[in-house]
Amino acid sequence: MKLSIGIVGLPNVGKSTLFNLLTKQSVLAANYPFATIDPNVGVVAVPDERVDTLAEMSKSKKKIPAVVEFYDIAGLVKGAYKGEGLGNQFLAHIREAQAIVVVLRVFNDPGVVHVESTIDPLRDMGTINTELALKDLETVNKRLDKAEGEARTGDKKAIKNMEVLKTVKAELEKGNLIHQFGEEEIVREMQLLTSKKQLYLLNGDEADVSARLEAEIKKLGADYLVANLAAIKDLGELIKKAYAILDLISFLTTGEDETRAWTIKRGTRAPEAAGVIHTDFEKNFIRAEVVNWKKLLESGGWSQAKQKGLIRLEGKEYVVQDGDVMVVRHG
After folding, report:
1. For residue 81, is pLDDT > 60?
2. Which residue has the higher pLDDT, 305 or 32?
3. CA 147, CA 140: separation in Å to the nearest integer?
4. Which pTM value belongs to this model?
5. Is 324 helix (H, G, I), strand (E, B) or coil?
6. Which range has the worst mean pLDDT, 14-18, 202-206, 293-297?
7. How far apart are alpha carbons 154 and 152 in whole angstroms?
8. Pfam families recorded for this chain (predicted)?
9. How far apart are the C-alpha atoms of 78 and 9, rounded to whole Å?
10. Alpha-carbon distance 182 to 123, whole Å?
11. Which residue, of 151, 236, 277, 318, has the fewest CB within 10 Å?
């Protein structure tokens, strides 16, 4: 499963610095707008002690953690929805991401130019979300014209699409994000920007962050993290949060060849989880042998856990849990 997170924000707020820290790559992080023109892409491992400890137990030749793909995207300015700055490129790249990390500058450094001249993270947050909403409104209006024509045929799916689009349009016109419609088929199909989950990174120190800013972020139903990117060394928490906002979990496989974390959506049943390993495993699924990773470690290995009766046999209706270690039996 490919997981992609877009790093977005106004110019000169720390996006490329964050990307460099995450990926240990060196991309241009210059002190002027639009230093990043094409999205830089980096694949980042999700920190997971379970992979390390199980690999040690199994004496695995390889360790393969879950990963998140981060896109460092060109800075956004007012009018991006209609092509100002690098708006069209910026917005097209966000469509490809599954979620967004919004970087807001809360630090005050006269040596680093701000595109709006003053530091105001609430204003910047409003600019970003307004631009996303206006672009979505443009997209929805075009699709709604088509949906209304299709609905006149009496097709039930077309009628539902029309109703969803009208509701979404009303929310966007109020300036609201539409996270709650993210699972609607028509919304997924259009890859609407404001339907994507958001995580806010407040670039600065705790002392720079106002209670009002925190309250506004929470009002959006988003999570946030305060990090001074000029001094930070460990971004493990951000990577884990980025993984979690998509409501994803990992199950594991372990053996002499490799120990690996496999990414699935929370609530996935055993056959679909097996299909992440190989499509044939889902098609020919019989059952799964399952044990929690901690119990497996405490036992000292698969054979020992089986002798202690800790290995469970689970069928097609079993919902896989975070930290399950599985062996899939298939036809």
Report:
1. no
2. 305
3. 10
4. 0.82
5. strand
6. 14-18
7. 5
8. MMR_HSR1, YchF-GTPase_C
9. 11
10. 25
11. 236
Please tell me the distance from the alpha carbon of residue 164 to that of residue 158, in angstroms, as a whole number.
10
- What is the pairing mode between strands 99-105 and 248-254? unpaired
Residues 29-73 pLDDT 10s: 444 443 444 557 888 888 899 999 999 999 999 999 988 888 887
In contact, 227 and 202? CB cutoff 8 Å? yes
Whether the predicted pLDDT of 11 surpasses 90: no
> Which residues in 111-246 belong to E strands, given as ranges?
197-203, 223-227
For domain 267-330, give the fold. Answer: Ubiquitin-like (UB roll) (3.10.20)
Q: How many CA atoms lie within 13 A of 235 on its CB side?
A: 22
For the chain, give every residue range classified as CATH 3.40.50.300. Answer: 4-244
Q: Which residue has the tokens 């202690």?
A: 308
**CATH C-level class of 4-244:** alpha beta
The torsion of the CA quartet 199, 113, 76, 226, rounded to 10 degrees, works out to 0
Q: Can you tell me the distance from the alpha carbon of 58 to that of 127, in angstroms, rounded to the nearest whole number?
A: 51
Q: Contacts for 64-67 with beta carbons within 8 Å, 24 or more apart?
A: 64/258, 64/259, 64/260, 64/261, 65/260, 65/261, 66/3, 66/243, 66/248, 66/250, 66/261, 66/262, 66/263, 67/3, 67/43
Measured at the CA of 30, the angle between CA 100 and CA 72, to 5 degrees, comes to 20
Structure tokens at 240: 């884990």
Decide: 65 and 236 in contact? Cβ < 8 Å: no
Instruction: Look up tokens 């999700």; give the residue.
Output: 46
Q: Yes or no: say if 48 and 250 are a contact pair by the CB < 8 Å rule.
A: yes
How far apart (Å, rounded) are the C-alpha atoms in residues 46 and 237? 9
